[in-house]
Amino acid sequence: MRFLLALLAIFALLGGTEVKIATYNVENLFDMNDDGNEYEEYIPNTPWGWNDAMYRTKLRNTAKVIHDIGADVIGLQEIESETALKDLKAQINRQGLYYPYYAFARAKNTTVAVALLSRYPIASALSRSVGAHRSYRDILEVNLNINGKNLRVFVNHWKSKSGPESMRIQSAKVLKKRLEEIGGDEPYVLMGDFNSHYEEYRTFVRSRKHNDTEGITGINHILKTIDNSQNPITYTSLKSNDNSLYNLWYELPEDQRWSHQFKQYKEGLDNILISPTLADGKGVEYVRGSFGRFDAPYLFHKEKPYRWQQSRKYPKHHLGEGYSDHLAIFAKFIIQ
Questions:
Q1: CA 237, CA 219: separation in Å to the nearest integer?
Q2: Hey, is 10 helix, strand or coil?
Q3: Interatomic CA distance for residues 61 and 92, integer angstroms
Q4: CA angle in degrees (0–180, nearest 5) for 244-73-138
Q5: What confidence score (pLDDT) does residue 12 get?
Q6: Domains of the chain
């Protein structure tokens, strides 16, 4: 820890800018427009009670979390529309944190989308199509301009575990192809809800429902967060493994490596992956040891993430309390 603090002090003396980047699945932020793609419970003004007052409560609760994370750049998942994103941005501003720049990517007919809020200028933003089926959400590619240096960020929301691994592999292949086009000299960060555990290749192999790929996974094999011997890429080995990526979950103790809980199962479905150029000691660098999970006490109820609450008894309806079924994760970078 003393070494890390000393390193940060050196960077500061040299004029480096520290940038905090986060990702957060906000769990179903729907606006008040009925465009025909909503989940049943989010169709406005039905017995479910998704009305303007409920929407405003969800906005305030979500904005509080984002304000408290305090990231300079934050990728978001499960945002229904650009309208919802702008309303959220305005609510965050009212709570004291201003993001002047944003980007949004929604594939046609998908229910929810991905977005990004930034305190730094966006040089370009592209929506990368994964597939024609509405189950595939576009990948948002954003090129940030931070004090004259570029950092490319990809915001992901892969197919949920209701589908097999082959559907997540499709997202991984689209992403991998784009990374090969960019080449290995440019720094980039992949983040979002991959619906994949950081060691998915270990956890899903016995699941007939998910393993339709003979053990091959999108996050581990296609994006290469493991080496040819099936060992995880580490911060140190990243430097000698071209085209590999380092998953920052390994920065935390094993019992803290989770962001989502389904029944008794805790998984790190939300991930931040970094390229080798972010660990080569030159230019834009990941601040080693800075990765964390935003786990403020108010985000838990009965030792589980305090998700947005809906009644379990009929008639089912929104209760107007809670936050998300995911926890946000974050990391810091130094821009030289």
A1: 17
A2: helix
A3: 10
A4: 65
A5: 45
A6: 17-335 (3.60.10.10)
